[in-house]
Amino acid sequence: EPEVTQTPSHQVTQMGQEVILRCVPISNHLYFYWYRQILGQKVEFLVSFYNNEISEKSEIFDDQFSVERPDGSNFTLKIRSTKLEDSAMYFCASTAGPTEAFFGQGTRLTVV
Amino acid sequence: AQSVTQPDIHITVSEGASLELRCNYSYGATPYLFWYVQSPGQGLQLLLKYFSGDTLVQGIKGFEAEFKRSQSSFNLRKPSVHWSDAAEYFCAVGPAGAGSYQLTFGKGTKLSVIP
Predict the structure, then answer these.
(1) Which of A24, A39, A43 to probe by mutation at the B interface, max B CB count within 10 Å?
(2) Chain-chain contact of B100 with A55 (C-beta, under 8 angstroms)
(3) pLDDT tens profile A45-84
(4) Residue B31 — very low, low, confident or very high, per pLDDT cuts 50/70/90?
(5) Contacts of A105 in chain B (CB under 8 A)
(6) How many CA atoms lie within 13 A of A56 on its CB side?
């Protein structure tokens, strides 16, 4: 069964450093997403990406965040200058359209 | 703006007992509705979904959910819980129209199962 793959599974970074979280969506999907789950809290939408551009973004997705689809398979989330409050589990998801989202296993980001 | 309410933060049931997890949503039109399950340290796995049609939907692992438009609810049920069902369950709502299909999640209900 096709799946969304995220790397790394866990990343520790120092405050102020840049991090790039990587995702390989399901190959025939067209819509790509990043969500965040701070420990003990609900899953929150960050950004959606379609046709090589951002289609929606939440208030959380400020100028410190960016997304990119550098090639035909990868989808990345960059945080330019990490803050302590960026510590969370980050989930990538993809959909073919108005159907269910398939989620990756997540990247746990710890900012120290 | 859409929202999802899961009023029960934590539920404990005995193995073999029935289960109902509550979900209420607020949305301007008929939404797409989902239940996801998250085991500790794991990602989100889809249990079931409702798009249209029959309001009682069947999912994986013996779960079912019923969409009740009049109550804006989409409660998850299982007739007999297994110890392996212990996890966190998230109800989510998505737009039923063209465009971006991002989901709004509830805060989740943690299920504990007593052997």
Answers:
(1) A43
(2) yes
(3) 999 999 899 999 999 999 999 999 988 789 999 999 999 9
(4) confident
(5) 42-43
(6) 16
